[in-house]
Each structure stands twice: as structure tokens, then as C-alpha cells.
Design brief:
mainly beta; 39% strand; five-stranded antiparallel beta sheet; five-stranded mixed barrel
Length: 203
């Protein structure tokens, strides 16, 4: 897309890329669309919705999709699940970790797998990164004591920090020295102890 006068509404949550101020984000992107009319040599009207109907009708709840983040508005991620179809991933369906602001954890253009959890009657699609990793827990959740892992800093805890040790688990990282971390920052940690409770303890 080099320039445009109108992009008709597509299957985007809350018209994220429909005509209007947000349409500028389509400039430079390759899209599949059908020409609906030509007003004059400089004004061509396109519809992505007409080309997406078949793809949308093939979607179903429980389906695995690859998400590409289009935009971030805490507490939601708006993602493209293919063919220009957009879905919403709420913060509570990203992982079990505690996010103060998802903008510190995820970036526009980042990709991750997810499951379609709901398709509403008005064609809004909801996906869950957390439920995808729950489905494959035996593959992604191999955490052992005396293991060195890269973790992401979450919110402060008593004498330490909550950290995401995997998409399925958050842990408490004990900090004796007053080291200041930033939410979403990646650090190397040592798995010190795994208790019977869900929380893991890191050094």
C-alpha cells in the first residue's frame, strides 16, 4: 500500500485498521484486497473484508494460530493471526506471570503461538498465549533445581521480585542487595529450590 483514499472495514477488532487515523499503519504493507470501485484514476476503493470471508469462516475455537503483534494497549495485545485477520489477547491470557504493563514485555512485530478461545457473533476473535503453553506443558515446562535459566522481571515482592520463569510459571527471585530492575528485563537466574507450591524459588 503506497497511498489510499479508503480502506473498508476488515475483520479487525474495534476497526483497528479501518479507514481513519489508524489507516496510516497500512502504508508500506502488502495486502490482499478486492477492488470494489474506481472513482477516478487517483482514487481506488478496496475491500479486504471480501477476501477474508473464506479464511474467517474456516477459523474455529481451539485452533492453533501464530500471532504477530499489531498494537499494544494495556491490558490487551491486538494481534494478526494470518491473512490480515486480527484478534485480541488479554493480559490474563498471556501467562501466569503478573504484568504491571504489557508494553514492558512485548513489542510490536513480535510473534508467539496461541489458541483461539472464542469467536463472537460480531466476528471478534479472542486468543490465548497462556492456554497454548498449557496444552504443551510437558514440552515447554521442564524446570529443575540447580538449573540456570533466563527469566523476565515482573513486579516487586517482599525481599525480591516476581519473575516469569516460563510462560506457565512465575517464581520469586530473592535479592539481598538493593539491585534495581526494570519490568520486562531479562536476567540470568539459578533455580535454587522448587517447593510443593506453584511458586519456584530462584537465587
Amino acid at each position: 500500500v503506497q497511498n489510499f483514499s479508503l480502506i473498508q472495514q476488515s475483520y479487525y477488532y474495534e476497526n483497528a485498521y479501518s479507514a481513519g487515523k489508524n489507516a496510516v499503519f497500512m502504508v508500506g504493507k502488502t495486502i490482499t484486497a478486492r477492488i470494489t470501485s474506481i472513482a477516478n484514476p487517483n482514487t481506488i476503493y478496496l475491500s479486504r473484508k471480501l477476501t477474508q470471508t473464506k479464511q474467517f469462516n474456516n477459523l474455529k475455537e481451539g485452533q492453533e494460530v501464530t500471532c504477530t503483534i499489531n498494537s499494544i494497549s494495556h491490558p490487551n495485545l491486538f494481534v494478526d493471526i494470518g491473512n490480515g485477520i486480527e484478534a485480541l489477547n488479554n493480559v490474563h491470557e498471556l501467562s501466569f506471570c503478573r504484568y504491571n504493563n504489557v508494553k514492558n514485555w512485548f513489542k510490536v512485530g513480535e510473534k508467539f503461538p496461541a489458541l483461539i478461545t472464542h469467536i463472537s457473533e460480531d466476528k471478534k476473535i479472542y486468543v490465548s498465549r497462556k492456554q497454548y503453553f498449557q496444552k504443551y506443558a510437558s514440552i515447554f515446562d521442564d524446570i529443575r533445581e540447580e538449573q540456570v535459566r533466563i527469566v523476565k522481571i515482573g513486579s516487586p515482592a517482599n525481599n525480591g521480585w516476581f519473575v516469569e520463569i516460563s510462560p506457565l510459571n512465575f517464581a520469586i527471585m530473592d535479592i539481598k542487595d538493593p539491585i534495581q530492575f526494570k519490568e520486562g528485563e531479562s536476567v540470568i537466574a539459578f533455580v535454587q529450590k522448587i517447593t510443593k507450591k506453584p511458586d519456584k524459588k530462584l537465587a
